[in-house]
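We now fix the convention by which a protein and its fold are recorded. The integers have meaning only within a learned vocabulary of local backbone shapes. The record below shows the convention in full.
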Amino acid sequence: MLKKLWLLFFTFAKIAALVLGGGLAMLPVIEETFVNKKKLLTQEELLDVVALTQTVPGIIAANAAVSIGMKIAGFAGALAALAGAVFPSFVIILIIAILFPGLSPDNPYWLGAFAGIRAGVTGLIAATAWKIGKNTLKGTFECIAAAVLLAAALHGINPGLIIIVAIAVGSIYCRICAGRVNRAEKSGGKDPEKC
């Protein structure tokens, strides 16, 4: 158990210290570590974590750390992962505040560095979206729902409203699928298409 706690702390500390761009940019590293290498999570569990961390308020990195830590090692795992996710940022911001109180926002080196960081983070987020889409958009319902909700987001609809609508539509769809399965079982017919 202690080994899992250290793994959670150090993995999230490494992610927080080295992955710029926060929440979504850290997902490929989480996937590589906890799904591909350590086999502590399945791809489905990671997708559930992504969905959960996007829908609850708060910092995505902290939400993901708590959720993954809880799945892997319970409450102690959630605390270890959260501590790892917060510690590097706290130390880095403290050092910046102490050493660079008069940091000029017009410094061309800083502006250039942040332009590069933004481009890199955009690429990481795009790669994450591609992986999530590949694993999530497996049926007609998912593709149509994603396209409609993407269009709503691009037209400036409130993200909270989009999430509420997605939850409602997904729940209705699952209820309809469950009804189809129940009717097929009762009538002794062939199994309906999976939802």
About this structure: The chain has a mean pLDDT of 85. The two ends are 37 Å apart (CA to CA). Residues 60-99 form the longest helix (40 residues).
